[in-house]
Specification:
Elements lengths: L2 E2 L22 E6 L4 E5 L19 E9 L5 E7 L25 E6 L3 E7 L4 E5 L11 E8 L4 E8 L5 E7 L10 E4 L8 E11 L5 H9 L16 E3 L11 E2 L9 E4 L3 E4 L8
Antiparallel strand pairs: 1-11, 2-13, 2-17, 3-12, 3-16, 4-9, 4-13, 5-6, 5-12, 6-7, 7-8, 9-10, 10-11, 13-14, 15-16
Bound molecules: calcium ion (2 copies).
The site of one calcium ion (CA) has 11 residues, from strand 2 and strand 13.
Length: 281
């Protein structure tokens, strides 16, 4: 594995989310830190299974997510790719990255003790790690993360920022592994580590596309209220706005991207609105 020092990104991004205006948002999903999660499951078995695969995921892919949390006591899961079925008898998801098993494309992102964002990527033989610098995740604030796998360049890049700090590149991993497991779906707030306690919002996933630094800037700079479901250039296959397209009711999370199926808020996860969605609240 090779780690490359940050060399680009921050200078390409300026201004603040919302273009300097209000950091407004209608709904997000509240996770209790016990067992709540957002799930999209395109495998044949398990709870909330049988969704249409999100894409082909044989080349480049990217995702973007906003989240807000306050727990500094341990590790918390942020996003993981789905590899296997949910085990309904134990409540344990099937995507744990405890061992390399020859399957490419597994992915897991977590936060260590409140602030250190970690990204794990599996190739066919081993688990590889991108560590962002300590302090890159801000407590009690909306954080923005974008992950970009550029297959032609053979790089995995993570951008991290918060509601007022421009996203920058933490570290870059050189690895040409494909990320096809995202085609089977994802878990938000669940993965190798304990579940996330906090708010998650505006999860977008891109098939066959490595977001450029300027596209990352566009998404971040537009804040949480940005609906780019019809943006032909960004063209997300999944855009899950966590209640904004669902009137804030129920547990089905509409996909306003080009994909066909909704995600689900499970184990008690619910839409929330109001003060919790504004900076400093
Ligand atoms: Ca939202
Ligand atoms: Ca619960």
């Amino acid at each position: 594995m090779t780690f490359i020092l940050p060399s680009f990104g921050a200078s390409a991004i300026s201004a603040v989310p919302g273009g300097g205006g209000a950091f407004s948002n209608t709904y997000s999903v509240d996770l209790d830190g016990t067992n709540d999660m957002v799930i999209y499951n395109a495998t044949a078995n398990g709870v909330n299974s049988g969704k249409t695969a999100l894409g082909t995921f044989t080349g480049s892919m990217s995702f973007a997510l906003w989240f807000k949390h306050s727990d500094t006591s341990s590790y918390e899961s942020v996003v993981s790719s789905r590899h296997a079925a949910w085990d309904a008898s134990t409540g344990v998801s099937g995507n744990k990255l405890t061992a390399a098993d020859g399957v490419q494309g597994k992915f897991d992102m977590d936060i260590g003790f409140g602030t250190t964002l970690r990204t794990w990527v599996y190739d066919s033989n081993s688990r590889q790690l991108l560590n962002t610098s300590a302090g890159s995740v801000t407590l009690n604030a909306w954080n923005f993360v974008a992950y970009v796998f550029d297959q032609s360049a053979g790089t995995h890049v993570v951008y991290v920022g918060d509601e007022s700090t421009t996203p920058s590149v933490g570290s870059t991993l050189s690895n040409s592994s494909t990320m096809e497991d995202f085609a089977n779906g994802f878990n938000i707030g669940d993965g190798q580590q304990p579940t996330l306690q906090g708010l998650v919002d505006e999860f977008a996933i891109f098939d066959g596309k490595a977001l450029s630094s300027s596209e990352v800037a566009t998404i971040w700079n537009s804040g949480e209220a940005f609906d780019y479901s019809s943006d032909a250039s960004l063209n997300p296959v999944g855009l899950f706005r966590m209640g904004d397209d669902d009137g804030g009711t129920g547990t089905s999370i509409s996909n306003s991207g080009s994909g066909s199926d909704s995600a689900d808020a499970i184990n008690g996860a619910s839409f929330v609105s109001g003060a919790g969605n504004t900076p400093g609240n």
